[in-house]
Amino acid sequence: MDSVSNEVVLDVRNLSVIYSSYGVEKKAVDSISFKLRKGEILGIVGESGAGKSTIAKAIMGIIDPPSYATGEVIFNGKNIIGMSEYKLNKIRWNKITMIFQASMNSLNPVESVKSNFMSVLKDKLDISEKGEAEMKIDEVLRYVSLPLYVKDNFPHELSGGMRQRILIALAMITGPEVVIADEPTTALDIITEFYVLSILKKNLKRSGSSMIYITHDLPSVIFLADEMLVMKNGLIVEKGPIKNIINNPQNEYTKKLVSTLNEVIE
Amino acid sequence: MAGLKQRYSRKYIVKRLIGTLIVYFSAVILIFAIEHLMPGNIAYDFVSRLIAENPHISYQQALQEIEAEYGLNLPIYDQFLIYIRNVLFTFPPNFGTSFEYLNDPAINIVLRALPFTLLLIVISQLIAWGVSIFIGVELAIRKNKKTDKASVPLLYFVYSIPIFWLALIMILVFSLYLHIFPAIVPFSYGSSIPTILYGMTLPIIVVVISTIPNHTLIIRSATIDFLKSDFVTALKAEGLKESTFRMKLIRNALLPSITQFFMQFGYLIGGIFIIESLFSLPGMGTVIITAALEYDYPVIEAGLFVTSVVMILSNLAADLLYPLLDPRVSYI
């Protein structure tokens, strides 16, 4: 909590996301509000289908029409919901980045790891000179404790843990203000998970970025986050500092979640 | 870097080449079989033709001489062995001389025609695939929008136009009414390259138009699938420039294209005959059709042989080139 300031970087107000398919609309996220402060790690916990990943997509502005988001997400004084693609593209990855699930194939399968980095460097940081780009890539690869040769590999040649660290490096390379991590360790074994999370935490400290950490894995939230939101059926059922929620859960769902954790420990 | 050595093992290449040879032998044997399954007797046809031109020849004597010269009086297995020796163990394969042009080896007649057919197919397919990749990706991005909704039926419409009809209409419009292109290709083996290209323009346009719908629909549906992938969601979140995004889509759309390109190539070698004969283009199609009408068996055999070889090679190329485009595929 020491590095968390009171400055709010992301202010989510009454955010709703409506999935629409063949004229049938379904509210996946139901007017939720929360604030993300500078340097804070905010955990969002909930079961599958609770709307966690949808929040991430809404903030990135990548909800495919005809589905849509309403409400406000205030970033740097501007509402980014409904912002033009052109303006959003200046925020995407420059200011707000995302770490996708390890189990997902989020890297271009037909390009080397280096090429995956290059397009971001070129389009986002205007670095097209090869030497400079390589130095930058080497730097972030070191941050995530990866050997430098991986940049010449193709994504399918790497292990899940390595791919996940590459996604972290890719998300950190622009020095973002906000990182949204959507279940970044789902597909990893517990030792690799802990290792990847420590690397993630270290990098956030270094860059001073804030993070929204989305997961269904309560122990990892306790390890990483300062505050947490508990979601069920598109609603926030509980929010507050981690310790308060673990020690004194109020909502029925949260109680069940915490008691499961205790049972496992016992 | 995952180099070529990691993508292709020697074992795979050897296995693939042996497979190719087996297909090659089978093709050679099939050509012999087809020839002998055809109705009629090669010698009778040939002698009838000779007598039609020179009525004073004795039928029986001519028949015996011809059968002796071409080995037609031998038992079928002897004929087969001679055929195998001449085709598999002679270079260039010897199919005998043409019945029509008596001093010309059949294989030479076919090989002279091959470049025209290859030129027609390669140029038209490079253009058609280039255009299709562009249109296909754009339509996939605009799926269910007006452009896409209007284009897809149009593509199916063009797809269903018979190629010979399209060719006839093009000849009517561009040759007879507008006098832009010649109706009949004004060149033959040995003409200058500009003359050949000018004469080929109309046939190329016809093949391009009639193959674009198929290619575009393949690229469109491949790209639509691809747009649903996790990696594209990630690309969108990266907020890259539109051009970068398009290039990455096109790069991935190339994957299904390369296999289709070579498979279509083999198909077109066999299917382009009608265009060649409509434009009197001196390609393989014209040669084989003429030979078939004239019962010129050696040329038919040589034509089938060269067509098979081109098909086998294009399939081999499709197989071997794929790992270069898709790093996930390796032949170990």
Low-confidence stretches of chain A: none
Order of helices and strands of chain A: EEEHEEHEHHHEHEHEEHH
**Number of helices, where a helix is a run of at least 4 consecutive DSSP H or I residues of chain B:** 14
The CATH topology label of the largest domain in chain B is MetI-like fold
Overall mean pLDDT of chain A stands at 88
Assess the beta-strand content of chain A as a share of residues. 25-35%
Would you spell out the secondary-structure blueprint of this structure?
The complex is a heterodimer of chains A (266) and B (332).
Chain A: E1 8-21, E2 24-37, E3 41-46, H1 52-60, E4 68-75, E5 78-79, H2 85-91, E6 96-99, H3 113-125, H4 130-143, H5 160-172, E7 178-182, H6 190-207, E8 210-215, H7 218-224, E9 227-232, E10 235-241, H8 242-247, H9 252-265
Chain B: H1 4-7, H2 10-37, H3 42-53, H4 59-70, H5 76-88, H6 106-141, H7 146-159, H8 163-177, H9 193-227, H10 230-238, H11 242-271, H12 273-278, H13 284-293, H14 297-325
Helix pairs in contact in B: 2-5, 2-14, 3-4, 6-9, 6-11, 6-13, 6-14, 7-9, 8-9, 9-11, 11-14, 13-14
How would you characterize the overall build of this protein?
- The complex is a heterodimer of chains A (266) and B (332).
- Chain A has 266 residues and is α/β, with parallel strands linked by helices.
- Chain A has nine helices and ten strands.
- In chain A, helix 6 links the parallel strand 7 and strand 8.
- In chain A, helix 4 crosses helix 5 and helix 5 runs parallel beside helix 6.
- Chain A is globular.
- Chain B folds into two domains: 85 residues, no CATH class; 218 residues, MetI-like fold (Orthogonal Bundle).
- The longest helix of chain B is centred in the middle third of the chain and has 36 residues.
- Chain B is globular.
- The mean pLDDT of chain B is 86.
